[in-house]
Amino acid sequence: MDMIQAYGAAAVPTNVLTNSGAAEVGPPSSDNDYTAIAHAVFTCIAFVIMMPLGVIFLRILERVRWHWINELLALSVAFIGLVIGIYLSTTYNKSKSFNSAHQLIGILVILALFLQAWLGWHHHQVYKRTKRTTPFAPVHRFFGSFLILAGLANGAIGLDYAENNNHILVYLVLSIILVVLVATWVLFNRWRVSRGRRNGIHETSRYEPPSQPFASDVHLELVRGL
Questions:
Q1: C-alpha to C-alpha distance for 16 and 4, rounded to whole angstroms
Q2: Which of 24, 45, 56, 93 lies at 20 to 30 Å from 129 by C-alpha?
Q3: DSSP single-letter state for residue 47
Q4: Backbone CA torsion sign across 209, 214, 217, 218
Q5: CA 31 remoteness from chain centre
C-alpha cells in the first residue's frame, strides 16, 4: 500500500467511499460461521421439536417410556448445543466474558434440565414401589413446562444477541404457534378424559404389554398423577 496517498492538506474528506491508491482484487466474499449455525440448529431441535414432542408422548399418547427416552435425547442434544455455544462465545470479544442474558439463561436452563430429569426419574422410582403419585409429580410437570418456555424465549434473545434480526419475527411467530397448538391439544385431551369420567366412561390403558417394544410397566395412573 502506498502510504503517500494518506498525506495531504488538512481538511474534511470529501468522499470516504473513493479508493485512492488501492484496488480490489477478485469479487467480495463473506465467510459463514458454521459454529453459530450448529449452535442454533442443535438448540432449536431440542426446544422447538423434541421437548414439545415429549409432552405429546406423555400427555396425549400416554407413552411414559417414549416420553423419557425422547426427553433424554432432547437433553443430550441441548447439552451439545450448549457446548457449541460455549466454544462459540470464546471466539468473539463481545461474548468472552459470558455475562450476556442469552448466555446466562442458556447455561442455567441446561443445568436445570438435569435436575428436571432427576425429578422425573425419582418420581418414577417412588411410584413403582408405592403405586402412588408423589409430590415430585406436579413439580416435574410445571418445572418442565417452564424450562421449555424459557428455552424458546432464550432462542429469541440469542437471535437478537447475534444481531440476526431478520429471523427473530419468524422464530417468535413459530414458537407462539407451537406453544398454542400443544397447549390446546393437551387441554382438549384433559377435558375429553374428564368428560368421559363424568359420564361413567372408563378408558383403558394405552400402554403396551411388557412383551412389546418400548413397553412400560407403569400404570396409566402415573400419567394421571403427573
A1: 17
A2: 56
A3: I
A4: negative
A5: 27
Summarised one tens digit per residue, pLDDT across range 22-63 is 666 666 666 667 999 999 999 999 999 999 999 999 888 888
Look up the pTM and report it.
Answer: 0.72
**Backbone region of residue 205 per phi and psi (left: phi > 0; alpha: psi in -120 to 50; beta: other values):** beta
Non-local (6+) Cβ contacts of 95 within 8 A are 88, 89, 103, 161
Task: Report the amino acid identity of residue 111.
Answer: L
Q: Which three cell numbers stand for residue 168?
A: 427473530
One-letter amino acid of 197: R
- Nearest CA among 158, 210, 190 for reference residue 43: 158
Query: Taking the CB of residue 131, how many other CB atoms lie within 10 A of it?
Result: 11
* CA distances in angstroms from 212 to 46, 65, 131, 209, listed in the order given: 27, 12, 22, 6
**Average pLDDT, integer, range 170-191:** 90
> Which tens digits make up the pLDDT trace of 114-161?
999 999 999 888 888 888 888 888 899 999 999 999 999 999 999 999
C-alpha to C-alpha distances, 112 to 73, 147, 151, 172, nearest whole angstrom: 15, 8, 11, 23
- CB-based contact 149:112 (threshold 8 Å): no
Q: What helix, strand, coil percent values describe the chain, rounded to 5?
A: 70, 0, 30
Would you state the cell numbers that stand for residue 216, as one nine-digit string?
412400560
